[in-house]
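Continuing the batch. This is chain 6 of the set; chains 1 through 5 are on the previous pages. Same settings as before, nothing changed between runs. Recording input and output for traceability.
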Amino acid sequence: MRSKGFDGMVCSIAGVMAAIGDRWGLLILRDLVLGISRYDGFRRSSGVTNATLSDRLKHLEANGLITRRSYQLNPERFEYLLTPQGRQIAPLMLVLAQIGDGLDLSGADAPPLKFLSRKSGSDVGWGLFDQSTGEQLSPLDIAIVEGPGADDLMRWRLSQTERRHVKDDAASGSPS
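Output for chain 6:
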């Protein structure tokens, strides 16, 4: 079941995780990004139980990531669509898929998904870029610092990062 420990936590990452809910919520969002929009499609794609699927769809809807639209009246049936907020999750699918491929976690001999530009047909990848120079960065090139919304707990987390860098530099013989 989902963790309920994110209430009141000042952290954008925790907020996104709380809105998604859990692994089933993430897989439902994956399916929506892929174009699956109906209950039976979600069941077939992931093997999720009816009770879990119903609960996660309600959770995603309550958190503003999806909306429900009737497509049949008798019996009433619904399809689910990403909201503008939910569409902001789509790049996460690309990142997770490409990380999974890089770590050979897909369970397939080759990547099961390719992401292509609709305009050029070329492969699409994710990356980290300096917004002022356009230079591509590695994760080691990035400093994480306090933002304007940081609270005391976030400042403490960041102080632990600095302590770790000092320890790592001392262990490697690098000047701190």
